[in-house]
Design a protein that fits this description.
The chain is mainly β and 120 residues long. Helix content is 13%, strand content 36%. The strands form two sheets. Strands 2-3-7-6-5 form a five-stranded mixed beta sheet, with no helix packed on it. A hairpin with a 4-residue loop joins strand 2 and strand 3. The termini are far apart.
Length: 120
């Protein structure tokens, strides 16, 4: 009987500890930046040559290596710690003939920033 009581007690403490707690993120960490982009071709080799990131404009320009095809590339991005990126990078190989828009949301969701990626 004591074992059952202690198991129930532990279960109650465990469930209450897993509640949806509110939290705050220090303002210094509330960033929604893209800090790096790399594009890969179908062979898994780096296709991007030069990357220019303008945080003020929310714009990224990627120049491809000579001979690379912008219609079949995979993207990887580095973003601010704890932030989220949509659409996510799990979309596989994509067509980058036209500019694409990405959204980065800061950890506490107070900063939402649109980024435009242009591949040349």
């Amino acid at each position: 009987m004591k074992k059952i009581f202690y198991l129930l007690l532990m279960l109650v403490f465990t469930l209450t500890a897993c509640g949806d707690d509110d939290y705050t993120v220090e303002e210094a960490y509330e960033k929604a930046e893209i800090t790096a982009i790399v594009l890969y071709n179908k062979e898994g080799k780096v296709a991007s040559d030069q990357v220019t990131i303008s945080s003020e404009q929310g714009a990224i320009t990627v120049e491809l290596k000579e001979g690379e095809d912008k219609t079949n590339l995979k993207i990887t991005a580095s973003i601010s710690a704890g932030a989220t990126l949509t659409p996510d990078m799990a979309q596989g190989y994509q067509h980058f003939s036209t500019a694409k828009t990405y959204t980065v949301i800061s950890p506490g969701k107070s900063v939402v920033k649109q980024w435009t990626l242009t591949v040349q």
